[in-house]
Every structure is written in structure tokens, then in C-alpha cells.
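User: Hey, my collaborator sent me this sequence without any context and asked if I could get a structure. I don't really work with proteins. Can you help?
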Amino acid sequence: MANRSDPMAQEVHGTNPQRIVEKILRMKVYATQYWKEYCFGLTAETLVDRAIEIDHVGGTYGGIRKPTKFMCLLLKMLQIQPDLEIIVEFIKNEEYKYVRALGALYLRCVGRPPEVYKYLEPLYVDYSKLRVRTFEGWTITHVDEFVDELLTEDYSCDIALPHLPKRWHLEQQNLLGPRTNNADGLDDDDDDDASSASSEHSAKKPERGRLVMKRSGRSESPRRDRKKKKADADAPPPAGDGGDLDIEATNALRAKLGLKPLRP
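Assistant: No problem. I've predicted the 3D structure and written it out in C-alpha cell form, which is a compact way to encode the shape of the chain:
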């Protein structure tokens, strides 16, 4: 039968590899036109041609939860069980991001825990965008987020993922080495950039101070000129021919106010 697993396929997690996908979802995949027309007779070599055509990830979509092409190819991979070397090439493929995502999900379903961490953790530095098709519509995610979901969650693409032990537990059993930073040297570069930025900032401070003082001097000079003009206008005129008239006018004003007159 076309829907049976390869006779040479080995059991995964103690069961048939196809049973990792729930039965109701498997039946839906078997009934799709894409499975009957494009997935029939695929081998490990010809599977790549179909994987390159994928333009989204996801499990099911629409109101009737129709399986995606991504899920159909995943089930086909579980059926024919390609070699680990082929899956590793899928994961290391940098040109086709959906092929990489398909290989990552397949390895998460059938791989051993040390192999899963070994080949999926390097994908944390891949920030390529991925289109996700769900029953609610289209969303956008990234490769690193998709990989983090595979390593930390128990459910992805509408299928239940096999149990994955924590990384520290495998390290205690010496099954996995300590995690290495795939972005070595970035911390030093950040420190150098921060120090250079601080030095540039400190070097620019005096210039900014002089600029502020210069601007403040421009803004205050008109005020000082106005105050000086006002003070000159309010100041009494110099003593001269009209000095007596000013004294008489002042005495007249003081008399109205009931004050003593000034002496000439």
C-alpha cells in the first residue's frame, strides 16, 4: 500500500515512525490531492525537489483543518525514513530556509536527544523569516524562534513532539558537551564599540558646551541691550540748563502728595 511505511524503516521511540503524527491528521493527509499527486512514489533523492517548492510551514489550516504541504512532506519523510546524512544536509542548507525547517522538525521527531541539540542549536543564529500557515490565517516567525519552539515546547505544527530531556540533564550524564557560543567574539566587539562610543561622546561634550554657551550668549545679548536702553531712559538727565525746571516739577509733584519740597 502507498500509505504504509518502508519495510526497511526502523521503529522510532518504540513505534512506527508515521504514528508520531496523530491518526486523524494522518488520515487527512492521505486524503489530500497533494499527497496523492505529488507525494506518491517519492524517494529520499526526489524528496528534495518537492521540499524546495515549499513556501510556508505549519500543520493544518482553514476551518476544516486541511493539512499543509509542509505536513504532507513531513509525513512522507517519516514513511520512507531517509538517512541521517540527508537530514543533516537539509538542516545545513542556507539557501532554502523551508527545507532547513523541514529537516529540523523531522530530526526533532525521530532523532536522539544529543543529535537534536547538536544539529538544531546552531540554527539559533539564523534570523530568516518564515511564513506560518495556521487555522487562524498567516503569521510571520523566524528560524531561530521556530527552532526554540522545537527545543522547548511539546507541541509544534499541530503535532505532539516526543519528549526531549533538558540540556543540563544530558550534560550531567556526559552525553552532551557544554553549549558553545556560535557568535564568538561578538561580546568583545560590543565592548570595543561601547568604549569607542563613550570616548567619542566625552570628546564631543566640550564642543556641545561651547555651542550651548554660544547660543545662550546670542539669545541673552538682545535682552541685555533692551535692559540697558531702558535703564538709560529711566536715568535722570545730566545737570544743565533744564535742571531747575526738573526740580520745580518735582517739587510741584511732591506738594500734591503732601511732601516737603526739595532744596535747590
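In plain terms: The first strand starts at residue 60 and ends at 61. You can pass these C-alpha cells on to your collaborator as they are.
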